[in-house]
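Incident log, structure service

09:12 report received: a user says their structure output differs between two submissions of the same chain.
09:20 pulled the input from the user's history:
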Amino acid sequence: MTALFALATSLLWGLADFGGGLLTRRAPALTVVVASQSIAVIVLGAIVMATGGLHEAGPQLWYAVAAGVVGPVAMLSFYKALALGPMGVVSPLGSLGVAVPVGVGLMIGERPGLLQFAGIAVAVAGIVLAGGPELRGAPVQRQAIGLTVVAAFGFGAVMALIAEASTTITGLFLALFVQRVANVAVGGAALYVSAKRGGRALPQDGGMRVIWTSLPALAFVGLADVAANGTYSIAAQNGPVTVAAVLANLYPVVTVLAALVLLKERLRVVQATGAGLALVGTVLLAGG
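09:34 re-ran on a clean worker, output below:
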């Protein structure tokens, strides 16, 4: 069950990142984040009310609040690092946040077998290579590396926090709702400050019309991200966190393959090698 839900997480996160990447070509990244998460808040709020999830409220929801605050900070740091580039370095480094939940798992006493340790090493190497790291070319700015480290730590922290935010399915819906409310609050505040300082809140061409026509895609991105958090929480609670975290972080492979199939992007040799290693690591982890 752990492997199944963790792989579902990587699929959902990979597709959400792919969709979010396409949307940010038409609208400001922060606007995409706030709009997609706002839709998720509405849907999750309805689910919480329908399932009576409010009765699951308790101190553990502070983990969800923390995840909701850290998430936008990590995402904005990541987008800023991507803008500074080169993307071929920044993108794969961002996935190294897997070290946070894996470290948590080891600290709480999890001890994967030798085969699983090998799977972790192979899968992480595959994740990095699947992003197509640029081993030569323009130098990487220190600011870009710093922002990427912040983003990676933030993404990993969100995974660790959301896994602790609930113990039941109805409680999970409530935790995800609280996390998304915090996401929108932090992201919305950042968007307001950005707009006051002269930043763009709406697309330069098309304005609000672009947002309205993009609502289905925004809904997909927001709900896929929510579903990924949910499946990861289930995976982490039903098996070793070390295994769940690595398998869930295969999402860069999904994003790369989606671009290959849907956008007809050419797959570089290093990316193909990374995808293959990630699959080998998956088999080792699942078999261990």
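09:41 both user submissions now match this output. Likely a transient worker issue. Closing.
09:42 reviewer note: The radius of gyration is 18 Å. The longest helix spans residues 169-196.
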